[in-house]
Queue: 3 jobs
Job 1
Amino acid sequence: MAYQPIGRGSAANDGTGDDLRTGAGKLNANFVEIYTKLGNGSALSADDFATFTGTETLTNKTLTDPEIDGSSGIKSGSSANLKISAGNQIVEIRGGGSNSGSITLNCESNSHGQKLLGQPHSAGVTNIQMLPAGADSTLVSRVSTDTLTNKSISGGTNTITALPNSALTNSQITLGSTGMALGATVTTIAGMTSLTSATITDGTMTINGGNISAAGTIAATTVTATTVTGYYKIAQWKTLVAGSADFAAFKTAVAAL
C-alpha cells in the first residue's frame, strides 16, 4: 500500500480537508502497514532492525542471489571457518570481460598473494583437477625448483631431455675394467675376458694368451702372424691367414705358434 497522507485543507477550517473519520482511516491504514512490515500486524517485533548504512550482525539469514561488493570482503568469527554450503556442492567463480574466473590466496599480511586462474575461453577447456592424496605437501609447477621423491616416470610415454651426466647418480657403464660415461666414445677397453659376436673395424685386437674360435671365415687381408710377449696381434696376422687353405688349416697354424 502506498503512504496515505491526511488532507488538512488549504487553511484552517476551510472545509477542504479530510473529515475526522477519513483522516483516522488513513492514519490506521498507515500504521497497519508499518506493524505488518516490522511485526505481526498488531505488535512490532522485539528484534533490532538492520539499516543500509549501519554496521550490523545478521544471524540465521538466507541470502538469495546476493551481490557483495567492497574492499573488506566477507568475514567470519575470529577463530571460525567461513563455510559455504552450495546446493550442488559447487562454488562457481564467474569470469567476465577478458578475464577468467580466479581465486587469490593472500599471505598473512595481505601484502602479496597467489592466484588460481581458470583457462581462457580460447582454450575450450572443461575438466576436473583433483588435488593429490597423501600427507601434507606442496604442489609442483613447471618452473619451480623441487626435489621429487618416490615418483615413477613411464619411459614409453615420456621424454627426458637436456639431462647431463653430472645430474645422474649412475652416469657411466663399465666394460671389463673400463668405465665409459653415457654418451661418450671409448677407443680402448681393458679387462675383457670374453667377446662374443664382435666386429673389429680398422683397429687392432689383442688376445692375451687365449684361443681364437669362429664358425665363419677370417679375412686374409687383416691378420699378421706376429707375437709380442705372449700377445697375438690379430691385425698383424695377414701372412698367416694368407697361407692357410681353410679355417682348419688356420687353427693348426695358430696352434703351432
Job 2
Amino acid sequence: MLIKTLQETISTLDKLISITLEDIENIKQAKHEEVFKNTKIKENLASKFSELKSQIDNILASRNKPLEEIFTPEEEKLFNLFREKLFEFNKQHKRFARLAFSVANFYNTLLNKIQNNEKVDYSSSYKNPNFKLKA
C-alpha cells in the first residue's frame, strides 16, 4: 500500500514540477494566458498531493515500529525519491513565485503611474537590495 501511494505521490510531484517549469518559461516569454490556464491544474494537483501525503502519514503512523524498521528497502528508496522530488518542486516553485511577483509588481507600478497620469520612470520602481532575480 505504501509503495503504491509513494509512486502516485512522486508522479503527482513530477507533474507539478513539469507545469511549474513550463510556467517559468511562459512568464519569461510573456505568455501569461498560458500561466493562468495552468493555475487550476496546479491547484488540483496540489490538492491531490496533500491527500496522498496524508495517506502516507497515516500508513507510517499505523505501523508502530521503531524509525529504523519502518521502511522496507524498496519503500525507503521510494521515500528518498519522494523527498528529492518535493525539494525540487519547492525550489522551482520559489523561482516561479519570484518571477510572478516581479511581473505583477511591474504591471501594478505601470498601472498606478498611468492612472495617476505620472511620467513612467522604470528606474525608480521597486528597489530592494536583497532582491535578486535570476532568469
Job 3
Amino acid sequence: MGPVLVLSQSSGTAVGAGAHLLLVIPAIPSVIKHPDGSLGAFIISIVILAFAAGFIKPSLGPLLCDQSPVKYPVLSTTKKGERVIVDPATTVQRYLMIFYWCINVGAIFAVATEYAERDVGFWLAFLLPGIIYMLMPIVLAWATKRLYKAPPQGSVVLEAWKVIKTLLSDGGWKRMWKGGDDFWNRAKPSYIAARDGQFDTTKVFWDDRFVDEIKQAVQACQVFALIPIFALADGGFGNELNDMSSAMVLGGVPNDLINNWNSLAIIIFTPILTWGLYPFMQKIGHPLRPMTRMCIGFSLGCITCVICALIQWRVYATSACGRYASTCPTPSAISLWWQVPIYTIPAIGELFVNVTSYELAYTRSPARMKGLVYALALFNSAIAAALGLAVSKAITDPYLMWSWTALAVASFLCAVSFPTYFRHLNDTPEAFADRDRQAGYQQPVALSQDHDGQQGDSTYSGKPGGHYDDVDEKV
C-alpha cells in the first residue's frame, strides 16, 4: 500500500499543478472578457483539481500514520523520570491532530490569494497556489526514501468483495439485519472448514482476522454516515450563512477575517486540545475516548445551529423587510461580529469530529485497506455538499430560521447516539498497524508456497500442518 500512497500523492500534486495553471488561463483579463470560453475552461480546471484532490487526500493521512514507530503499547521513561505507556492509538490521534492543524495553516494562505485577486487579478490568485503545487513533487521525491512503504500487493478490494459475497450467500442478507457474530463467522475460513470439512484456498484466500477487520471497518462506516449532519451544521445548507450576513451590518468586520475565521480557530485550538485538554483528561483518569469526542463535536454543532437560529430570528425581527431580510435593500441592525461564534464553535467541533473520523478510519480498517476506508470517511463531506446544493433553492427567506432548527435537532440526536448505540467503538483494535500484516506477509495465499518455491495443496482440511497453522505460528 505504501508505494501506491506515495504514487497517488505525487500524481495528485502534479495534476493539481496543471489544474492551477489551467485556472490561470481563463482568469487572464483579455480572456475573462469572453465568458463563454473562459467559463468552459474554468469548469474543466475545477474538475481536474477535484480529481487531483482525490489522489492526495485519501493517501496523505494513512501514509503519515504509517510512519508512527509505536505499533504496540510500550513502556517509556520521560525526561522527568516518570514511567509512562506510549499508546499507538493516542500517537495516531496526535499525528492526525497535527495533520489537521497543518491543513488549516495552508487554508490561511487564502488570505494572500484574496488580496492578490483584489489588487492584481484572479490570474495571480490562481497562480500562487499553483506554484506551491509545483514544489510538492520535488518534496515528495526527496522524502520518499525516508518513508516506510509497505510493498505493493494485489487488490485488497477484490478480497473484501469475496468476503462480503460469502457473507451474503445462502440467505446471508437476512442474517445481516440481525448482526452478531453468527453473520460474520460464516465468512471465516475456520468456520467454513468446520462446516464443510475442507475448502479451496484459491477461492477462500483470506484468514479469520481479515473478516474481523472487515467487520470493524463496516462499524466505522456506520459512524461516517452521520458526519454529513455535522458538516451541514458547520455552515448550513447552501448559502445560508451568506444570506444571513448579507442582511447584517459590517460593523468594522474585515470580510477576509470572517471568511477565514474557521481555519484561524482551528489553528488556535489544536494545540490547546493536543497538549492541554487531552493529556489533562488522561492524567486524571478520564480520557476522552473516540465516541465521547464525537458526542462533544456534534453537541458543539447543535449549539452552533441554535445560535444561528437565534441570530437569524433577530435579523428577521430587526429588518425593515421582516422575514425577507436577505434581499432587503436596508440591512438589519445586527452586527456581522455575531457570526464569529458561528465560525468558531464548529471549528472546535471539527477537531472532535473530523479528526476522530480519520482516526477511526485508520485504526478500524483492514491493514491493507486503510486508504480506501479513509477515502470513505472523506466522501461524506461530498455527500454533505451535495445535500446542501440539492435543497439550497428551497432554503431561502422566510424559512432560514427553521433549517437551522432542524439541523440542531438532528445534531443533538446524533450526539446522543455516539456514547449509547456506538459505545462499542470506544475500544481500539489491537495491532491495527501491524507492518507484517500491512505488507501481506500474514495472508494465507502468500504462505501457500512450499519452502522449495513449489505451489502447495490448494485445499485446507483444518488438520495440523495446514497452511492456516503456519499463519498462526507467524503471527
